[in-house]
Each structure stands twice: as structure tokens, then as C-alpha cells.
Records
---
Amino acid sequence: MSLAPLLLTLALAAPSAPAAATAAPIATSPAPAPAAAPARDAGPDRIVTRVQPQPRLTVGDRFDVTYVVTTPHPSLVTGPLADSMGAFVVVKEDRKTTRRGDLDETTYKLSVAGFQPGRQTLPGLRFTVSFGERGDTLTGDTVGVSIASVLPDSMKDVHGLKPPETFPNYWLWLVPAILLLVAGLAWLAWKLYRRLKRLQDAVPPPLPAWEEALGALDRLPWREWLADGQYKRFYYALSEILKRYLERRFGFDAVEQTTTELLASMRAQKLPMRDEITRFFARCDLVKYAKTVPPEDEAERALEQLRDFVQRTKPAPPATAPAATTTPAPAGGSA
């Protein structure tokens, strides 16, 4: 075959070129993202849940759960409240309130034990807040823990004590740093003291103890609680309101005390109506801890008994002196 027919054959077999160049993709600007909704102003009431991690838990072992409740000063905080604790039991409860400016920081440290093996969830505990005429409810986070059923037979994971280790002497550097730190903290404490004093002068005086207690009772959603069968929550709130009133009205530490300690303090203070209050706290403990379900009319009477106690123990209003009467002078002068 000659060269010319071969070239003609190859040209006919080759793929034809596209009639038009492929159009370049058109760059399109992305659609504008929807504007984020403005965040709501966070109120002063807030709660933080802290859990101390445990490497291993078995049935009956305790672990600590801490709730830090921040509220305006002065506030009445009732809690912790829960419809059901599930597989957990609160073994010990410590409460401490610290004032930070115009806020109260109340720390609840609970020692909790679980009695069912497996992955268990501690429900979020609730706290009710009363501040003047305003009320709020705060709920802590749920806590998940794993609980082993039995201890291992062997203790191979226990090792002997390590030999002591020596550390270099850093005191030559630490002493000047500590002195500077103490001086800085003293200056900050002085500035903070002056600011807190100004804020304290600007804060309005708190409501009297009886007005605060009666207001808390009026705002209590007791009808809904009783309708839902939440008797434990209802009696827990009543006992907290009464303890707060006793502490502010009679001047002793009632909120932090157990029922036994509180009754002893009442006898030492020679409080009025001690027998009625003793029976009231005994009934509250039966509902809170012995899971007694009282009749609904008895629960309503407990609310009225507490209201009556506050009304009868509040101080009497100061007596006003009668206005002096003057005899009018006779008309006309002397002869």
C-alpha cells in the first residue's frame, strides 16, 4: 500500500473534534446564610452541675455530685427536688451559701450511692427560686454512671508503693513569687471590698421574713403538684419554706440543720407553738423519706397550718399613741 492511501485511512478513522468548546462552569455566589436570631439576655438565675469522676464504682459506692445555684440576693432556694431518684439514694447533703455582690451562690454537695448494676442515669434535680414576687425553676444536668455488680476476685491491679522521689528546691523562686501574689490579692480584696460596699448600699432591704414566707406559699403551684400526685415535692417545699422563715424570724441556723437538730434548737430558743411545728416536721419526714401518701385534704391542711403559724408568730404592729386632746379656750376674753 502506498503512503497516501494509508494517511487518508488514518484521517477518516480519527475521532472528530467537538463543534464547540465546552463552556466553562459559571461561578455562582453562595446564597446568604440566614441571620442568626439574637440571643436572649440570660437572667441571673443559673445552675451548674459538677461531678467528681470515679475510676470504678460498685454497688453501694458513693460519688459526689455538686450543684451550684446562682440567684439574686436575697432569694429563697428550695431543693433539690426530684420525682424519682431511680437506682440512686442521696446518702449525705451539704449546703453552703456565699454572697457574691448582688448574687447568692448556693452550693449543694450530694453524696450519692447506686444500688443497681449497669449503666444508670441520675435524673436532673430541680431547684425552685423565690425572689420577691418572682419565681423560677432551675434543673440540673443528668449524670450517667456505670456500676459494677461485684468486686473482682483478684487484686492484681494493686501495686506496691513507689520509692520516694526527690524534687529540686524551688523555694528561692517561690518565696518572692508568693509575696507578690499575696500583695496582689490584698490589693484586689481591698478593691472588691469597696465595690461590694457600694453595691450593698444600693441594694434595697430584703422583705421581712413573714412577708417572704407568705409570698412563697402564695406562689407555690401546690394544686398542680397534688393533682399530679407529687406529694413528696409538695412537703419538701413546705419544710424548706418553714426552715427559712424560722431562721430569719428567730435568728438561728435552721436551713442547714436536720429535723432532729432543728427541734433541739427550737426548744433551746423557747419558740412558740413548738408542739405543732414538731408534728408538722414529723409528717413532712414521713412523706419525704418513708414514701407515705397522705390524703389530699390533709396536704391542703398542712399548707394552711404553715400559713397560720407564720401569721401567729409575726411581730405585732407597733401601737400608735393616742392623739392628745386639747380643751378649746372659751369664747371671749376675761372681764
---
Amino acid sequence: MPIYQYHCAKCNLKFELKQSFNDESIVACPRCKNGAQRLFSPVPVIFKGSGFYVTDNRKNVTADTSDVKVTKAKEADKGTEDKAKQ
């Protein structure tokens, strides 16, 4: 069951409560019995392994890669034309 953080606006109490997903989201403050609101916090993300930094995936490419794609496309078209002639 997940643990949620709540904040009471009336008495400024912050508390945690373990709830299931099916429980009602409206919670009363344990100190003043006023309605408390759920606090949302960002989830931590940990990047492990290689490939997450700019230096890990950098290749020494000096030629323009768009020319390579065009050349490969032209070669593929020639292959289909040769098969059609046969």
C-alpha cells in the first residue's frame, strides 16, 4: 500500500497516511479534524549505465549524413528498377 503525504491548512500539520488505491481520498486531520489535502512531490529518477551523457554516444562523423540517406535510397530504387526490367 502506498504512503501519501497530507497537509492541513487550518493547523498547518503535515502527516503521512498509508492508504490503498480503493480508499476515499478525503482525509481528516488527526489534530483538528479539518479536511486535509494530499501533497504531490516529484518522483526521483536515477540514470544508471552508459548512454545517458552526451559524451557516451558521440561519434566522430565529419560527413553530412543526409547525403548517405539519399545515396542509399537511390541504390534501393535502382534495385527495384533492375528487377522490373528482368
---
Amino acid sequence: MAFGTHDSASEVMAPIKPNEKPLLVVVVGPTAVGKTHTAILIAQALRTEIINADSRQVYQRMAIGTAQPDEAERAAVPHHFVDFVQPEEMYSAGQFESEAMKWLGQWFQSRRTAVMSGGSGLYVKAVLEGLDEIPSDLTIRASLNERLQTEGIESLVTELRQLDPVHANRMDVQNPQRVVRALEVCLATGRPFSSFHNESVRERPFDAWVVGLRMPKEVLDERINQRVHQMVHRGLETEVRGLQHLADQNALQTVGYREWNGYFDGQKSREEVIEEIQLRTRQFAKRQMTWFQKMPDVHWFDAHEKDANENILNALRVECSQRGWQLNDTPTRD
């Protein structure tokens, strides 16, 4: 589905005029809420492309478990920052900020709009506000990794909750690398890790219009449960088996992957693995919403309503009209 006529689209595709800022449309919300579909509709309406802001969809060979946009979705609208990092490599929010800002800088030289979509709050924040430089202490990190091996992750999580309850409540506390990193900063600086994400907001050479997607908990929970079943049907187990030699890597410390370890060891049934993935995904979605609900200036829409995407496009049309751009409101099928 494409939106608008060539003439109306040419306005949002036109180069930026002097003293005019380009517009980055951002789509946020919890996993399984429908961000990819909505982002594609918006990008088609604007005749633009999509930056993916998801810390796990960057990895190759993890298409099923991270719910990467599929071939048809990427053919409908080009997606950037998807499926380009090897699972054994580290990729940080700081790297994403640098590379995404470089891409946007080049893109906005000739285009007025772009779309960014994703569920990683820190990645979204990195582009919209910038990240503060976070210190490191390799000695403390080594000590924490030793504790991780001898005491287990719960001991570290308990200490992190004492030193930085704000970050502990919104992060994935089942991810050992992230727990170690957050605790490392707390111990090295005497400050909460979360304080380094709130210091300053960098001025950006573009405006942002943020769309937030939400739905009732019971509806989202059912969508998550069904999505997990679909992933398993598509071959999630085979995908995870093919990455077992990398099970200790940071990329694999995520929901949908680490739960299979007990199954491969003969300690869990397949059904138990599926239920655990569903539970942890629902918990993850709750943390995502906690993060995004604290973001300022988000235009929230109820994604489960029939006219949700039409309402979003209508609101976008108003935003564009205020800039003197026109967006045709009649969808046409290619």
C-alpha cells in the first residue's frame, strides 16, 4: 500500500529549504504491538526510509527470535540498521548513535523526512537526545564477572537494585552483560548508572515527531503468546541450535534464545521453553512501556483500535501541513 500522489509526495521529498528543519518520525512501543507495520505505512506516506532502533535486530542469523522485518517488509520500504552485525561482535547504543546520526546527516541533505522505529528505549534516546559518555573500570568489571560465575546473577541484580533501582526496574535483569555493566558504573563512580542517561540533551539538526503505540495488557499479552508460537513454527529452535557455539555472547543473552539452554541439556520440555519465552517477553514488554511512558512529547495511539493507523496518518498530515507540506489522505494500492 502506498499513500498519496506523486505531486503531494514531492513536497515531503523535496530538499530542505533555508531555515527549515527536516522531520524524523519515530515509532515506539512494546514488542508485538505492531511498530513495523505502522512504520512502513508512515514511511510509504512520506516516500522515505526507515532506521531500525532495536538492539537485537542488528544481529545476523537471528531473524526469527528478534522478529526482524521480513523480506516483504524490507521490500516495501528500505530498512537500515537491521541484520548487519555478527552475533559474536559487540554493538552498543553509542555506536548506534554515531552511525545513525551520520546516516541521517547524509539523508537529510536531500530529503525532508525519515522514520525511526524500534523498541530499544536507549537506542531511541541516543538519536533524539544523545548519550552521555559513560566511564569504564575494567578491574571492577573483571571482579563482577568472577562474582557472576561464583554467585550467579541474582546476587548482582540485588546489589544493582540497591544502588540504582530506577535502571534495575526498566532493564533486562536476566542479561548478565548488562547487569555487570550497570553495576560496574555504579561502583566505579558512586553514581547510579541511570544518571548518565539524564545529564544533557544534545541539540539535533532535525525535529522529532514521536508516535507511541499501546494496547490493553490482556490484548498485548495474547499477541505476544501468539507471536512466540509463530516464531517456534517458523523454526526458532533450529535458529537457536545453530548459534549454540555462541551462547555466551552478549547477542544471545536475550529473550527467545537463552531459554533453550535447559531444553538442549534435557532439563526442560519444549512446552516449558515456550511458556518461559512467553512470560519473559511479557515482562520485557512491561519494561519497555515503563521506559516509553516517561518519554516527553509522545503522541499515543491505541494500536488495537480499527482506525489506529488512519488516526496516526491524520495526525501526521496535520504536522506536515503546519510545515507547509501536503500529504494526500487517500491510500492507493500499487
